[in-house]
Each structure stands twice: as structure tokens, then as C-alpha cells.
Amino acid sequence: MEEQVALAVWLDHPRSARHLRRYGLVHYVSERFRYAVLYVERRRAPAVIRALRASRFVVRVEPSPYREAVEAIVNLNGEARDPAADEA
Questions:
Q1: Is the dihedral of CA 51, 28, 39, 69 positive or negative?
Q2: Mind listing the domains of the chain with CATH numbers?
Q3: Which residues, 6+ apart, have CB-to-CB distance to 53 below 8 Å?
Q4: Burial degree of 3 (CB within 10 A; 0-12, 13-18, 19+)
Q5: Is 59 strand, coil or helix?
Q6: Which keywords are on file for this protein (predicted)?
Q7: Which among 45, 7, 44, 13 is positioned nearest to 26, based on CA atoms?
Q8: Residue 17: closest CA among 42, 32, 38
Q9: What is the C-alpha separation between 30 and 38, in angstroms, rounded?
Q10: CA dist., res. 76 & res. 74, Å (int)
Q11: How far apart are CA 11 and CA 41, in angstroms?
Q12: pTM of the entire structure?
């Protein structure tokens, strides 16, 4: 299975989230804040971002910063630890 990347997509209306299914897996939709989290294959991500930005129902598209945030936390704390090893 190919690695996927999460995209945060802000919508003009929450009902527009149903159109996102043609681009990838819709993981979450916030009706209150009018955004959706969409998972797409990493190799397709640049093309999907361009297509979404050209769509009328999309206000803004950003790659999710989750992966970079986890890497930054690991770098601050030193090497990654295995929680199971701490219990032993």
C-alpha cells in the first residue's frame, strides 16, 4: 500500500464535502468549522491540491502538518522511545 498524505480542505459549505470523495478518502468533516480532512496517495497529492484549488467549493487547501509536528516532538525529546519497554 502506498503512503498517504492528509490534506486539510476548507469548504464554502459542509455539504460540498461529498464532492471530495472523487479525490481520495474523506476521513473527517467539521460542519461547524467548514473543513474536511482528506487522505490521498503521496504521489497524487500535488495534482489533487491543484485540482481542489481550482474547484469553486474549496476555499483553501493545505497539507496537514501532523507528520512534521510528530517529527519535531521526537527531535525535541531525543530518540523515539518504545512505551512497552518502559513498562518492563
A1: positive
A2: 4-87 (3.30.70)
A3: 61
A4: exposed
A5: strand
A6: Cytoplasm
A7: 7
A8: 38
A9: 12
A10: 5
A11: 21
A12: 0.76
